[in-house]
Amino acid sequence: MKAFLDQLHARIEQRRADGRGLALVFLDCGIIGRIDGIWGYAAGDAVREHFASRLRSDVLREGDLLGEIGRNGIACVLDAVQNDGVALLAAEKILGALDAPVLAGEDEIYPRPATGIAVFPDHGDNEVTLLQHARTACRVARERAERVAVYSGLHDEPEIGQLRYESRLRGTIVAEALELVFQPQTEFRTGLLSGVETLLRMDGSDAGIVPARDAFAAAESAGLVSDLTARMLNAAMRSCADFRDAGGLNLRFGVNLTAKSLRQPGLPDAVTRALDTWNLRPGRLVIEVNETALLEASPESCSALRRLKELGTRLSIDDPGVGYASLAFLATLPFDEMKIDLSRVPDMLNAPKHDGLVQSMIELAHRIKLEIVAEGVDSEAVAARVKELGCDYMQGRHVSPPLDAAGVIRNFGR
Predict the structure, then answer these.
(1) Residues whose CB is less than 8 angstroms from the CB of residue 375 and which lie 6 or more positions away in sequence, other chains included
(2) Is the dihedral of CA 393, 398, 404, 409 positive or negative?
(3) What is the chain's alpha carbon radius of gyration, rounded to the nearest angstrom?
(4) How far is Cα 397 from Cα 405, in angstroms, rounded to an integer?
(5) CA-to-CA distance for 308 and 369, rounded, in angstroms?
(6) At residue 371, what are phi and psi to the nearest 5 degrees?
(7) Domains in the chain and their CATH numbers?
(8) Which residue, among 112, 90, 150, 87, has the nearest Cα to 28 in the 3D structure?
(9) What stretches in the chain show pLDDT beneath 50?
(10) What is the pLDDT of residues 144-157, one digit of tens each?
(11) Please, which residues bridge with residue 112 across strands?
(12) Contact, 316 vs 289, CB < 8 A?
């Protein structure tokens, strides 16, 4: 990459001298790394060379530059370009040239590339900044239907915020400063509190709720996945023992784990030790997992789920894909319940298609012997409708916001 940056530097200095501009179009090929992993590096190299050849013959002019940036990235320098309009046309031409399927082995693969544009001098006055901003725009483009984006300073704000969040979360995990809060669940049949979902929190507020996938990603970067898992399990079980002893509440308690965290070799033993320590029956613990695609790709995670089921714990799949294929795969695993996130089907009371989707998911799940927990139930009307559709449990603002352990005992204890 150094050779390319040196060439880009020279072009920038030429344009600085003559007062003209240039554009850098960063192309994320999207599939080279995956082809490497499936068919080998020779197949990946062949596809890369095919892309480069198409760009040289169909898009780039004689004076333009082409550089390889990492395994999936290609940078195109469009020389003597005065504005991003010309670069946008070139980017669209790039996508048109590379959107056709390519051969990997004997298979046809659709690459779905994305492009990000940065223009000198508007978006950067040196080669490093220009490349950085083109890559940022490309990440934005990957989320757009048209798969093209021109760099804007606004693109940096979410990335900076995400980086700060990840760094802060990692520090919180290292300092063992994450708190637990509990999302109450009620059973439709009895109308009584039946369980809680254990959530992680920063800053002592609802705004600080941390998704399990974020917490475990930060823990992995710090080498603390096993420690985080053990702390979550023990803290959740200690609180559940308090609910029983101080509040007279025999509740199920859900603990969120990721498909990757399930691969820890000592996880079933750690669960057994924690249950014994807090004198809790295994059936009170609900292990919640939400990454159906990763489970399908990980025999080790599926094996761990079966071992946990053998211990007597309950297993919950959190908001899986809604297709028959996803449910057919789940039917091969020993899950007890499925959670449906109603925030993904907004306004179901006034949108018949959304209502029908929820009804279909409930019916399909019941056919494979899964109980249903409706998440995000925020009103009496929604509660009444999902009860009518056959949901077994519900959680959400209509039941209660997340509470600390003392709040659960104060609000629901006997």
Answers:
(1) 318, 319, 339, 340, 341, 342, 343, 394, 395, 396
(2) negative
(3) 26
(4) 17
(5) 18
(6) -75, 160
(7) 2-151 (3.30.70.270), 163-412 (3.20.20.450)
(8) 112
(9) 322-323
(10) 878 888 888 776 66
(11) none
(12) yes
**Distance of alpha carbon 79 from alpha carbon 15, whole angstroms:** 9
CB 255 within 8 A of CB 228: no
Q: Exposed e or buried b for every residue in 74-106, given b needs 16+ CB within 10 A?
A: bbbbbbbbeebebbbebbebbbeebeeebebee
Q: Which of 254, 180, 193, 189 is nearest to 399 (CA)?
A: 193
The continuous run of DSSP H or E covering 163 comes out as: helix 156-174
d(CA 78, CA 23): 5
What's the rounded Cα separation, in Å, for the pair 154 and 257? Answer: 34
* 281 burial via Cβ count (<10 Å: 0-12, 13-18, 19+): exposed
CB-count burial class (<10 Å; 0-12, 13-18, 19+) for 216: buried
Give the per-residue pLDDT at 158.
Answer: 65
- Helix 156-174 to helix 212-221 angle (10° resolution) is 70
- What's the pLDDT tens digit per position in 98-141? 877 787 767 777 788 899 999 999 888 899 999 999 998 998 88
Cis amide prior to 121 (ω within 30 degrees): yes
Q: Which of these, 113, 119, 127, lies nearest to 152 by C-alpha position?
A: 119
Tokens found for residue 327:
């449910």
Q: In 3-state terms, what secondary structure has residue 184?
A: strand
Q: By the 8 A CB rule, do 118 and 84 touch?
A: no
Per-residue confidence (pLDDT) for residue 343, from 0 to 100: 81
94, amino acid identity: I
pLDDT of residue 320: 66
Please tell me the distance from the alpha carbon of residue 237 to that of residue 241, in angstroms, as a whole number: 6
- Of 106, 129, 104, whose CA–CA distance to 29 is shortest? 104
Alpha carbons 398 and 277: distance in angstroms, whole number: 34
Q: How many angstroms separate the CA atoms of 182 and 350, rounded?
A: 30
Query: What totals of helices (H) and strands (E) does the chain contain, helices first?
Result: 15, 16
